[in-house]
Amino acid sequence: MFEAAELGRKLDKKTFKDLVTPLRAALLQEQFKLSAKKRPVIIIVEGVDNGIKGELINRLNEWFDTRGLEVHAFGHKTEAEHERPRFWRYWMSLPARGRIGIFSSSWYTGTLYERTFRKLSARNFDVHMKRISSLEESLAADGALILKFWLHMSKDIQRSRFKRVKKEKKTRWMVSKMDLALHDNHKKYIQAAERAIRMTDNANAPWLIVEAEEARYRDATVAQTILKALEGMVEQTEICSDGDSVARLVPPAGTHKTILDGIDLSQSLGKDTYSSRLDELQNRLTQLSWQAYHQQKTTVMVFEGWDAAGKGGAIRRVMNAVDARIAQVISIAAPTDEELAHHYLWRFWRHIPRAGRMIIYDRSWYGRVLVERVEGFARAPEWRRAYLEINDFEEQLTEHGFNLLKFWIHIDPDEQLTRFKEREQIPYKQHKITDEDWRNREKWGAYELAINDMVARTSTDYAPWTLIPGNDKKLARIKVLETVCERLENSLGKR
Asked: Where is the Polyphosphate kinase-2-related domain (predicted)?
C-alpha cells in the first residue's frame, strides 16, 4: 500500500505561492457555508512522524477561520479519561454541526502504537478497528464529513529529518521519544497502519495517503482534498433520505402479541411486607453503593416505561438509599440546541460518570427507538440503525467494567387511565399530566410494537432488560431494588 505512494513529489515556491491565495479564499468560503449545511467536519491526521503532523495542522489552523475550528491532540490519558470507556474522550471532542474538528492523534493512534510494540494481539487490534469503523459509519450516517489523512515518508528520509531537526535547539523538541521508538520499529508500525487503513477505508470515511516528504506538496494536497470535499457537501436534510415515512398502519392495542404480554400484571405486595422489604433493601443498597464506590465499580441505570408507570417513584426509592455525593439522576427531555448539534448519543456519553459513581437515567438513549420512532422525530433509517449503535455503546460501557441495568416498567392501559385521572384531581400531581400524555394513549399499539422491537433487539448478555410489572407500585419498587442489589453484589464478588 505505502510502497505505491509517489515519494519525492514536490511543489516549487512560486507554484505554491500562486496556489495558496485562491485556495485559502475558497476554504474560508466553504467553511462559512457549513453552518447552513448543519453538518460537522472531522479531519483525522495520522502518520509516521508527529512533527510533520503538527506542521500540517498548524498550516490548516492558519488557513481556516479559527472561530469555527477546533484542534484536538490526544496524548496520555488523564485520570478522568482512564475511569471512563476508551472512546469517551473522543466523543467529548466531536465538533458540533457547522464546525470543523481536526484530530491530531485520534482513535487510531494508541492502538497503532500498542500493536507496533506487540502490547496488543492481532485479534484485539482487529476488534478495535471494527469498532472504529462502526463509530465512523454512525457519525457519517448522522451527517458528519470524515476525512482521514495518512502522512507518509520513507524511513531514510525520516532519519535525515530527525538529524536536521535535532541539530537546532529551537526545533529539537519536535522529535519525541515515541517518534524515535516508532522509527526503530518502522516496519511493524507500517504493517499495523496498512491493516488499519484496509479495515477502515470506506466511502463515508475515506483514507488518503499523502506523500509528506516535502511540506508544500503535503499541505497543498491535503487542503485541496478538504476543499473538494467541502464543495461536494449537501445540506443535512438531504442525507439518508429514502422517502420512508415512520407513519405505519398499527393494529389496535391488544390485537397482537408482544414481549410485554408475558408480564404478569396481577402480582401485588401487601403494605406490611412492602415496608419491611423496603427498609431491608435500602439498607443493603446503602452499604453496596459505598462498597462499589471504594472499589471503583461504576453503575449506570436506565429507567423506561409507560407514562405514569412509576419510574419516578422507583428512582426515588433507589436514591433514598444512595448518598447524593456519589449518585446523580439525569432526567431526559427534548434535546437542547447544543445537543441537537451533535449525534444523539453525544449527550449520553457526556454524562458518563467517573469510577465508582452511580448515574440514573430517567428516560434515555432509547428515546430514539421509542418516542422518536413513533412520533416521527427520527426518520426510518435513523431509528433502524440505532439498535446497533445502542448495542455498541452499551457494550463499551460493560467492557469497561460498568454495571448497566435497564428497567422497563410495564402497566396496562386501564391502570394508566386510572393514574392519569388521579393526577388531574390531586393538586401536587397535576404538573405530571399533560395533553401530550393523553395523545400518547391513542398510539398505544404503535408504542407496543416499538417496545417489543427495542427489547428483542437490545436485550443482550451484557446488558439485558429487566421487565417490571408496574400495576402495583409497591411491587415494582421492591423488584427494582432487589435487582439493583443483586447486580451490585455480583459485581463486588459477594455471590
From this structure: 11-235, 270-490
Q: Which three cell numbers stand for residue 359?
A: 448515574
Q: For the chain, first and last CA: distance in Å? A: 53
Taken as a whole, the chain contains a residue count of 495
Name 406's bridge partners. Answer: 302, 465
DSSP code of residue 239 = T
Helix (H, G, I), strand (E, B) or coil at 129: helix
Side-chain-facing half-sphere of 285: CA atoms under 13 Å: 26
Instruction: State the Cα–Cα distance between residues 378 and 368, nearest whole angstrom.
Output: 7
Q: Is 222 helix (H, G, I), strand (E, B) or coil?
A: helix
* Amino acid sitting at position 224: Q
Domain with CATH 3.40.50.300 in the chain: 2-238, 259-491
- Strand-pair partners of 72: 103
pLDDT score for 418 = 94
For 152, 296, 486, the CA distances from 2, given in Å and listed in that order, are: 8, 44, 53
- Model confidence at 134, in pLDDT bands (50, 70, 90)? very high
Percent of the chain with pLDDT over 70: 93
Which segments of 75-207 does DSSP mark as H helices, in order? 79-82, 88-91, 109-116, 122-141, 155-167, 177-184, 186-200
Specify the pLDDT at position 254. 54
Question: For the domain bounded by 2-238, which CATH number is listed?
Answer: 3.40.50.300
Check the CA dihedral 229-68-22-208 and report its sign: negative
Average pLDDT over residues 113-137: 97
SS (H, E, C) 339-397: HHCCCCCHHHHCCCCCCCCEEEEECCHHHHCCHHHHHCCCCHHHHHHHHHHHHHHHHHH
Which residues lie closer than 8 Å to 410 by C-beta, 6 or more apart? 260, 263, 265, 305, 306, 309, 467, 468, 469, 470
Which are the contacts of 60, defined by CB distance < 8 A and separation ≥ 6?
A: 43, 69, 102, 222, 223, 226
Look at the block and give the residue holding cell 400524555.
Answer: 437
Torsion of CA 410, 411, 413, 417, to 10 degrees: -130
pTM of the predicted model as reported, rounded to 2 decimal places: 0.91
List Cβ neighbours of 115 (8 Å cut-off, separation of 6 or more).
122, 125, 188, 192
